[in-house]
Specification:
Length: about 650
């Protein structure tokens, strides 16, 4: 178990995480141990020969039987579990469901089943937080594990003390060293002086920053100006050429090959906001690299696809799955191949020439976005600035339901005071609620600094999201049903939430946007709590609230319906300018991690006489005197199709 007191801003985090020690893993730092989810995840975490990824390519070439579903990681589950209508995932990587568990859960009793037995879902969020939550590299974890990763990047290694702490502050890996803040070093003008103690060429961090083989080189003696707020970009980016043969090196440094920083996207003398922004900038250049060198030749294997201009091989099941695995992104452009895989779980939208991986939601093909004739849409969806009818030719001209709308009276009995801007200047919503912003401007929350803003009418419905939840671009989460009507949702990072998901004490959005202003008040967005909300909370809670039912005589609104629409009529509104950008940093729920027996039961035992003691009763997947060690999760035998179809291999994979 890793138990360490760290400081993040003004909050002390008691980080208490379990470890997978059945592999002897050298991570280059004692700060962070291996998590079982990091074994066979396509990323080298152990610097001692990449032992966490050895023999894992056998999963890549694994094929399943006809009555089985192939998970994205190569494991197989019975087809029944794929077709069975359940939100519970059977694949360890969650690739058989679009519903990702909210991890960590509020109810700790369910953690071991809902969160602890899943690895990271395919996509960008591949850093394991150790409790079922996954984050981007150097992103935020509730558990605080990202802080351990950052601290491992701050290791001094073989650098002199003065050079080391100068590089920590310049790169913005951390904001303090041994209790001394970087701001103090900047203010005392010691940074430049300390850089003179560095070698001509310095590797920092002293361990790889990505994928177990990518590291940065700096020329610290050439640095003559420093910034207290911006991060210094590396002069060179180095990597293992055997894994990334598609990149052309500029020079060699020992056993590694390197490229100039400007060749990796870093503009000359341009600094970045923080350490994560540097990582995010360089990471795309290495997405096409292999995880580890392979001794066997798999190039002729029938189940593999060879990336263009590269020796990287991937399973053909990764073709057109929404995840770029090849450097040139050619795996996502092999449309013809995607339809010749004989994969019964792939599907094809009627207007596309590609067969999509089951990782794509089938709602991609739903006809709710575009219909074929006017009889299939609702009357009040005409001229609402969202196309609902497929392009059709009438009298030699192309038309949709949004054609010639400049002659449409946008402020009418159907659109008046319905909460949606149907007019370009918002005229149909004027005087419907107590005004927050000046006329012809839209009140919403900025997703950049989380303050209340008044967005000009010209920036509404322009396909650019300027407001939290995409409230200015409601077409992102707009659903039309001929029988039910129109509903709107809260948009965050390619997912849509219903209004009921706001302020429900669960983090549904990766950046916690749906809970940011709720201040731990469950049910804040329910009607009964309207009187107690601040203005900025009220603006948040209005997103996705509107449901427009099909127009009938029974549902016709009272015109102009002003009194009904005014919220908190007697309330003295005051536009708040407070920002909670700093709240993006997750706070560890110490109470959930304070128990002595991790995931186990703390028992009293009788030792004889009047003596009693405590022991931890551990579940099968944990062991140790405090259940601090992770056991093997998966033990299975795979049937592998060899180059020669008559020669089958069998391999045992354990995680």
């Amino acid at each position: 178990m890793l138990d360490k007191k760290l400081k993040s801003d003004s909050t002390h985090l008691a980080i208490k995480l379990t470890c997978y020690i059945l592999l002897e893993c050298v991570r280059g730092s004692s700060y962070i141990c291996l998590d079982w989810r990091e074994v066979c995840d396509g990323r080298v975490d152990c610097l001692n020969g990449g032992v966490d990824e050895l023999q894992c390519f056998d999963l890549e070439i694994n094929e399943c039987d006809e009555n089985e579903y192939r998970c994205h990681n190569g494991l197989c589950i019975p087809e029944y579990f794929w077709t069975y209508e359940s939100a519970i995932a059977v694949c360890a990587d969650l690739s058989d469901t679009s519903i990702v568990p909210r991890c960590p859960l509020s109810y700790i009793g369910f953690d071991i089943f809902e969160c602890e037995e899943y690895s990271c879902q395919p996509g960008q969020k591949m850093f394991s937080c150790g409790d079922g939550q996954c984050a981007e590299d150097f992103g935020e974890c509730y558990s605080g594990r990202h802080i351990l990763l950052t601290d491992s990047m701050s290791a001094q290694g073989n650098l002199s003390f003065d050079c080391w702490r100068s590089m920590v502050c310049l790169s913005k890996v951390n904001d303090q060293i041994n209790g001394t803040s970087c701001e103090q070093l900047f203010n005392s003008s010691q940074i430049i002086t300390h850089l003179e103690s560095c070698e001509t060429l310095v590797q920092f961090p002293t361990i790889p920053v990505l994928y177990g083989h990518v590291y940065f080189l700096y020329r610290p003696r050439n640095i003559f100006n420093v910034s207290i707020t911006l991060a210094r970009t590396p002069d060179y980016v180095c990597y293992d050429e055997r894994l990334c043969d598609f990149l052309t090196p500029s020079f060699r440094n020992g056993t590694y090959t390197c490229r100039h920083g400007h060749e990796m996207g870093f503009e000359f003398n341009v600094e970045y906001q923080d350490w994560k922004s540097i990582i995010d900038s360089v990471k795309p250049y290495f997405r096409g690299c292999m995880a580890i060198s392979r001794n066997r030749n798999y190039s002729q294997h029938l189940s593999l696809y060879s990336c263009k201009n590269s020796s990287k091989l991937i399973s053909k099941h990764r073709i057109v799955d929404g995840i770029s695995d090849c450097y040139l992104n050619d795996d996502e452009q092999e449309f013809e191949l995607s339809c010749s895989l004989n994969d019964t779980f792939r599907f094809k939208c009627s207007d596309e020439n590609q067969c999509l991986s089951p990782l794509f939601p089938r709602t991609r093909c739903t006809p709710s976005k575009t219909h074929h004739n006017l009889n299939e849409i609702l009357f009040h969806t005409i001229c609402d600035r969202t196309v609902d009818v497929s392009l059709m030719t009438i009298d030699g001209q192309n038309h949709t339901d949004e054609t010639d709308c400049e002659n449409w009276q946008c402020n009418n009995i159907y659109t008046r005071c319905d909460g949606v801007w149907n007019c370009l200047d918002g005229e149909d919503e004027v005087n419907c609620t107590r005004p927050i912003c000046p006329p012809h401007s839209f009140a919403c929350i900025s997703p950049l600094n989380y303050t209340l803003i008044c967005l000009p009418a010209s920036q509404i419905y322009n396909e650019i999201i300027d407001c939290l939840g995409a409230s200015d671009e409601s077409q992102y989460c707009r659903t039309v049903d001929f029988n039910i009507g129109i509903s709107y949702g809260f948009y965050c990072l390619n997912r849509c939430l219903s209004h009921s998901a706001l302020c429900n004490s669960y983090q549904d959005c990766p950046l916690n946007d749906d809970e940011k202003f709720c201040e731990n008040h469950q049910g804040l967005c329910e009607n009964t709590a309207a009187c107690n909300r601040t203005l900025i909370q009220d603006v948040l809670c209005q997103i996705g609230l509107l449901d427009r039912v099909p127009f009938t005589l029974e549902t016709i609104p009272t015109y102009p319906q002003v009194e009904k629409r005014i919220i908190h009529h007697f309330r003295d509104y005051r536009v708040e300018s407070r920002t909670i950008a700093n709240d993006i940093k997750s706070q560890l729920d110490v109470s959930r991690r304070s128990q002595r027996c991790n995931h186990g039961v703390d028992l009293y035992i009788w030792l004889g006489g009047t003596d009693y003691g405590k022991i931890c009763f551990c579940p099968a997947n944990y062991y140790g005197d405090m259940c601090q060690y992770q056991n093997q999760r998966v033990s299975l035998t795979l049937t592998l199709i060899a180059t020669n179809p008559d020669d089958n291999l069998r391999a045992s994979i354990k995680l």
